[in-house]
Amino acid sequence: MIELLKAVLFGIVEGVTEWLPISSTGHLILLDEFITLNMSDEFKSMFDVVIQLGAILAVIVLFFHKLNPFSPGKTQAERNQTWQLWFKVVVSILPSGIVGVLFDDWMDAHLHNGIVVSIALIVYGIAFIVVEARNQHGHFERGRDGTTHSRLAAVNDVYDITYQTALIIGLFQCLSLVPGTSRSGSTILGAIMIGVGRPAGAEFSFFMAIPTMLGASAIKGLKFLLSGVSATGTEIGVLVVGCVVSFLVSLMVIRGLMQYVRNHSFSVFGVYRIVLGIIVLVYFAFLA
């Protein structure tokens, strides 16, 4: 029962932090410092994969119509537009895919610690505040849909993102391989910096997560299977609970974030990152 309650907590943290620009990996590493699943390292890696799958499923469910080129009611032009969006997503994930394959094991061994997480939290927190301050000086205007856009934003619809823009956002995603950076944080920040509006940047970041996280999950899942480790009944229960909780929480968080970014900046997340980063840095410095 205790392990199932831990799975619920880890699922909640994954569902909240995967989509907010505050670093899910960083929070899970920190949570593991205080609450550890009493299971093998191989199983813990598999658990991380499964709760990520729950989070990914939430994106697929919420944006199924937009992402599905075969959705009923779509015209041929709209279907072509959807295919183009997928091609852009594929282009965007190539840089991080290459870097991840080459350096994943090294980064797991050397960068998964509290000090790295705290520094990344602070640095990117400052970056969010600086970039959003620049946007504030660019002034805002309200669109027909009620969404507030910065005049600096040249792209306010996810379909209008070009292949070049997608590739640049993908380069920013490489930064998220450092724990504490945040995959959504790095991609959304990169999108805003090159003129993509917040809602469009957030949507594209979510779409990038589908192949990115599925690919990473497949690699880690394969490693688990090849390790020859079998799961007990309790461990299977932990996997199911963590996945379901992550999925349900992700549904709420994604809906809430998309509503929030229509009329608000990401500065509040920058402040949160800095405060948390300082607390974590002091904590680990004290332990040392």
Write up what this structure looks like.
With 288 residues, the protein is mainly alpha-helical. It has one domain (2-287). Helix content is 74%, strand content 2%. It has helices spanning 2-17, 24-34, 41-62, 64-67, 76-110, 114-137, 163-174, 183-193, 198-226, 233-260, 267-287, and strands at residues 140-142, 148-150. Helix 3 (41-62) packs antiparallel against helix 9 (198-226) and helix 5 crosses helix 9 (198-226).
Strand content: under 5%
Quaternary assembly = single chain
Helix and strand succession? Answer: HHHHHHEEHHHHH
Structural class: mainly alpha
Number of strands: 2
Strand order of the largest sheet: 1-2
Largest sheet: 2 strands, antiparallel
Our count of domains comes out at: 1
Tally of helical segments:
11
Helical residue percent band: over 70%
Average pLDDT confidence is 88
Q: Which spans have pLDDT < 50 for at least 5 consecutive residues? A: 139-144
Net shape: globular
Quote the distance from N terminus to C terminus. Answer: 34 Å
Query: What gyration radius follows from the Cα positions, in whole Å?
Result: 19 Å
What would a concise description of this structure say?
The chain has 288 residues and is mainly α.
Helix and strand layout, with pairings?
Blueprint: H1 2-17, H2 24-34, H3 41-62, H4 64-67, H5 76-110, H6 114-137, E1 140-142, E2 148-150, H7 163-174, H8 183-193, H9 198-226, H10 233-260, H11 267-287
Antiparallel strand pairs: 1-2
Defining traits:
mainly alpha; two-stranded antiparallel ribbon; globular; 288 residues
